[in-house]
Design goal:
Length: 173
């Protein structure tokens, strides 16, 4: 507890989840809605904060490993980060979630196959312009923008023209 206020301090895993959620631009309710297990926004907040109830009358909250693993998956926390904050059980479950999701993806048709090898190389070359740690998050954000319709085709010939290598991104919309 914070001696000044009597407010319980979040556990390291709660702080990790909160930072990752905020980095994705999600509210606790949005993150909870995206999590494949049943969790409500108020429970997500309790886990992040490490307590439930009123300040001074609060009880500590520690997420079960399964819940924490699914929360971590939803906001893109890697298993090693959970291990770093002392939640090896949750990290093991998260690794299994990742393995199962990869297996599900492998059994589906490859959505990139329609692009052909040359266009796939163009995408990879563009990704290589980002630091390695930013590539996955950039692809996820791009997918979110495409799915939301934010990047609808404008029909603008200039927007469809390829960009010269080394040139900064030009926004035409």
């Amino acid at each position: 507890m914070s001696p000044e206020h009597g407010t319980p301090q979040p556990a390291p895993e709660g702080e990790l989840i909160r930072l990752a959620r905020q980095a994705r631009g999600l509210s606790p309710e949005e993150a909870a809605d995206r999590t494949p297990i049943r969790i409500k926004g108020f429970r997500w907040r309790q886990i992040e904060n490490g307590y439930k109830g009123k300040i001074g009358e609060s009880d500590p909250v520690r997420a079960p490993d399964k819940t924490l693993a699914h929360m971590a998956f939803t906001v893109g926390v890697a298993p090693n980060r959970l291990t770093e904050v002392g939640r090896e059980g949750a990290a093991a479950i998260l690794r299994e979630i990742q393995i199962q999701r990869a297996g599900e993806s492998a059994s589906l048709p490859d959505p990139l196959a329609a692009l052909g090898a040359e266009r796939q190389r163009i995408i990879v070359d563009m990704l290589k312009q980002l630091p390695p740690e930013d590539r996955g998050p950039a692809l996820r954000r791009l997918a979110e923008r495409v799915e939301s319709g934010e990047l609808e085709e404008s029909g603008d010939a200039e927007a469809d023209a390829p960009q010269a290598p080394g040139q900064p991104y030009r926004h035409t919309g």
